Structures are given as structure tokens and as C-alpha cells.
Amino acid sequence: MGEVELFNQLFRQYYQPLLFFAMQYIADEEECHDIVNGVFEEVWRHIDQIDHSTAKSFLYASVRNRCIDYVRRMKLRQQYVEFTELMSERYIQADEQIEQQDIKKRISEIFNALKPPTKEILEACYIQGKKYKEVAEEMKISISTVKKHMVRALKILRDLKNAKSVT
Asked: For the segment 62-72, what is each residue's pLDDT rounded down to a tens digit?
């Protein structure tokens, strides 16, 4: 039997069974086709060295080995992806912590720059969560005065925020 006939016989006889065999290792059918095709490419390149009596064992062992290599590569790839995600998450968390610290520092600076009674009214309304009416009664001022100081405080905060984002 000539080399071309041997290859054609092996291909017709074993391609489908090898494909199903590969699919026992790998769920991706296209990848299984690629693996089996790769094995047959190797057989074609070395057809003169193929012993017909051991061809079946050689084909199955080759497909199995390539499937195992593929699974190993996928596991390594998955480990790399997980590692990259973990490291990215750590950097993002670190960046967020730094950003939060910067925000807290800026808020503290802005808050400390406010003058009384605007500072006390802002603190009572936003930090302590009191209603304008409660603050007005406690400070013995009108609700409109509380509103006026809140508007002033929020304008200062907004202006400083805009100034910081420009720089």
C-alpha cells in the first residue's frame, strides 16, 4: 500500500472516532477538530515512518497528548486571568482608598475653611442629619437663615470642587 493510500485509509477510518475521543477531554468541538487535524498533519509529514499495525495506537496517543496539553494551557491561562484580575482588583482597591483619603482630606480642608455659623449649620444638617427646622430652633435663628447658610456652604463646596477638578 502506498503512502497516500495509507494516509487516506487512516484518515477515513479514524478521523471521526478521534474527534469523539478528543471531545471526551475538551468540550470545544472546533478545538477538537484542530487537534485531530494537527495529528493528521503530523502523520502526513511522517507518513513514511508510520507502521500500519501501530497506527491506531499512535493516533489515539497523539490526540490524547495534544488534548492534555491543551487542557494544561487552558488551566494556565485561567490561572493567569485569575491572577491578573486579583492584582488589578488590589490596585483598584488601593487607588480607591487613596482617592477616598484625598476626598476626605479635601472635605476636611473645605469644611475647616468655612466660617461660623455656616460651618455649624452645615455640620448640623449634613453630618448630624438634622432638619433645617431643628437647626433653626437650636440656634435660635430663622429657617430662612439656615437655608441661606446652607446655600452659601454648598456654593463654596461646589466652587472648590470645580476648582480642584480643573487643576
From this structure: 999 999 999 99
